Amino acid sequence: MIAVFWPMNALPQNRTPSVEPQEWVAYKARFVREDGRVVDDANGDISHSEGQGYGLLLAWLADDRAGFEHIWSFTRTRLMLRDDGLAVWKWDPAATPPVTDPNNASDGDLLIAYALALAGRGWSEQRFVDSARQIAEALAAHAIYDFDGRTLLRPGAVGFDAADRPDGPVVNLSYWIFEALPVMAELAPEAGWESLGQSGVELVRAAAFGDRKLPPDWLAIGDTLKPAEGFAAEFSYNALRIPLYLMRAQDGDMELLRRLRDGIAGANGGVALVDLETGAVKEELMDAGYRIIQAFAGCVLDGTTLPEDLRRFEPTVYYPSTLHLLSLAGIREAHPQCL
C-alpha cells in the first residue's frame, strides 16, 4: 500500500500547516470567490470538481477551517447534484443552467472525499467524515471496477468502458490520487483500493511511450496499451501531475520516478509536453508551478536543494499555482531538508 501523509488513524494533534498562511491568502484572493467557488481562470473562469477538491485540500493543508467551509458549501450545493452520490464535473457561470456536463470526473471526487476525510478527522467534524464516506462508497459503486486482471478507475461514470469505445476501456492515469487511496480504504473498505493503487503504478510503469518513455494523458487498455483514440497522443497537462502524485504519496519506486523526471525534462529547465508519436516537444512549460515538479523529483531522488525562486509562491494561473502549493506542501512534510 502506498503511504499517505496523514492516515485517518494517525492524524497529528498539533500539526504545523504545510501551506503557509500568506501563500493560502494569496491563492484564495486570486482563485476562490466569496461563495467558495474555485475558479479556473485559464479556462473561461469555469469551476470543476477537480478545482473544488484541490481547494478543499489546500484549505486543510493551510488549516483554514472557514475557507474550507465556504469551498465545501459551494461544492455541496452546486456540484453534488448527481443521483449516484458523485459530483458533476463542470460548472460554467456563463451558461444557463451552469452545469453544462453532468458526468463526473473521478479525480475530483477522490480529491473532495480525501480532503473531507482529513478535515473531518483533524477538526473533529463528523459531518465531513460522513460526507467523505458517502462519496467513497459512490466511487466504489460506480468508478472502481476490474478488467482483465486489473482494478481500474473510470475517469467518468459514463463513456469510458469497453462497451463504450472500440479501444476501451480508457483511463487517465493522472486521476489516480495515490495518497487518497488508503483513506478511501478506511471509508469504504469493500472496494479494492489497494489493488487500484497497485494497478495505477503498474500502468504508469508499462505506459512508456516514445524515446522519453512517458505515459499519455489518455490510455487505452485493450489487447495492448496505447494512447486512446480520439485524444491527442501526447504527454500533456493531465499526465504531468503523475510524478507529483507519486511523490506526495511517498511511493518508493525511485527507478520509475527517475524515468519520469528525465522524460519530462525540457531543454530550458521546464516541463516538456511531448507528442508521443513523433517525439517532438510541443511546448515547454516554464511556470514555477510546473518546474517545481522537476525540482521536487530532484529532492526525492538526489537530495537536491530546491531553487530559491521555487520556494516562493506567487499565484499565476489556477493550475500551475495549485501544483506549486501541493509540491511545496509535500516537500515541507516529507523532505524539509531540501528547503
From TrEMBL:
InterPro entries assigned: 6-hairpin_glycosidase_sf, 6hp_glycosidase-like_sf, Glyco_hydro_8
Entry's EC annotation: 3.2.1.4
Membrane-crossing residue ranges in chain numbering: none
Domain of life: Bacteria
Entry keyword Hydrolase: yes
Keywords: Carbohydrate metabolism, Cellulose degradation, Glycosidase, Hydrolase, Polysaccharide degradation
Entry-linked Gene3D superfamilies: 1.50.10.10
GO biological process, one term: cellulose catabolic process
Catalysed reactions listed for this entry: Endohydrolysis of (1->4)-beta-D-glucosidic linkages in cellulose, lichenin and cereal beta-D-glucans
Pfam families assigned to the protein according to its UniProt record, in alphabetical order: Glyco_hydro_8
Keyword Amino-acid biosynthesis (UniProt): no
GO molecular function annotation: cellulase activity
Class of this enzyme: hydrolase
Similarity-based family: Belongs to the glycosyl hydrolase 8 (cellulase D) family.
Name the record gives this protein: cellulase
Native species: Neoaquamicrobium microcysteis
Lineage: Bacteria, Pseudomonadati, Pseudomonadota, Alphaproteobacteria, Hyphomicrobiales
